[in-house]
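To: structure desk
From: M.T.
Subject: fold request, one chain
Message: Could you run this one when you get a chance? Sequence is below, nothing fancy, just the single chain.
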Amino acid sequence: MEGLTLLSLLLPLLLFDTGDAKYEPNWKSIDSRPSPEWFDQAKFGIFIHWGVFSVPSFGSEWFWYYWQRNKVQVYVDFMKKNYPPDFKYQDFAPYFTAEFFNAKKWTDIFASSGAKYIVLTTKHHEGFTMWGSKTSWNWNAVDVGPKRDLVDEVATALRANSDLRLGLYHSLFEWFNPLYEQDAANKFKTNYFPTSKTLPELYELILKYKPEVLWSDGDGDAPDTYWNSTGFLAWLYNDSPVRDTVVTNDRWGYGSICNHGGYYTCSDRYQPGHLIKHKWENCMSIDRRSWGYRREAPLSDYLSIEQLVATLVETVSCGGNLLLNVGPTHDGRIAPIYEERLRQVGQWLKVNGEAIFNTTAWRAQNDSITPHIWYTSKPQEKAIFAMMLEWPSNGTVILHEPVVTQGQTQVVLLGVGTLPWQPLNPSGGLTVLLPPLPFSQMPCQWAWTLKLTGAA
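Reply: Done. Structure tokens follow.
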């Protein structure tokens, strides 16, 4: 291949010893690596989309692309109305100030949500890096804008003040990078961009910040061979400082999504609604129309806490993790609407977290008779959890799936205590009598969990 740099020739020799390799640089070998146990148990993480796009904070984090490449009219009109004719996207960078950014305050909010890991955007498709990347001259947060290493501040606060694990998002391609555009024009028969930009950045992020989640994105319609994805992942799994604990997703080149890599994301806001064999993650945003912060977003565009809890419950019941996104402002604030939603999820998890964390999918994901009930299990405790998204108006709930035994099965409403029940029929199932609680004594406000022990 043309365009090889000295770095691309040396990295395999310096960082990848093929003689002792456990994982080889091919998908069959890479895909054979089991997901570290911590990730499956974690269930819930926080996504953070933050960058220069947070300055216009209009429409979408794809602002630059929609304005300059697609010429979407609302973006063109926005710029004409609010900025001079010669204003360039790069001119937004000095206004990405982060003067109110406090990594410890962010960490406190994330920890209050009950999440077990975070994934910070280190570089989106705009190419602006949130650390002083050695290959992103004058287009990074150390050289322009905040003039601070934002990735380091988040990583340091996270490790000093919480048990949250660090994850980093990184876009493989950049919309308007001349080297990428040159390779694309050559139908990716040259690889100037990955060898001089993408791969050095990936190695730098891993060696400097040691994340335990590496969230790759943006293949730019280029195959994994162009990105040397299997070569990089072989080093990551064999020789990197996080080789034993790191997890990665499936966005490593055109066609790899939902087929290769670590856990599957398949698509944004992926929700299969049933159990799938491979570990997966549902990445979705509190703002249903954007991942980055939008100043013009109406309240109706933000998902309610009821919707978020329902999504978390369904995701975990079907074997997935939920990665819930917030978009901070250009000056480093997490808007109150985001903070409120995260703290509300945390309040719910304080009561119901036993049915979420360290659980596995049960043989049935949702109840076949009573709608809006989702199951999880803890085989080690011989426990089944039935999460009700609606409180029955008649004071009873029918669970068709569990097989119960009089004198052995016990039903507990988490946050309240033991409840009476009756068998539904000889083949299985039960009717649970719910307590007539006043609103002030309800264990939580949005969904409720029945824990069954001594049931099959």
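Reply (cont.): The chain has two domains: 6-355, 373-453. Let me know if you need anything else for the meeting.
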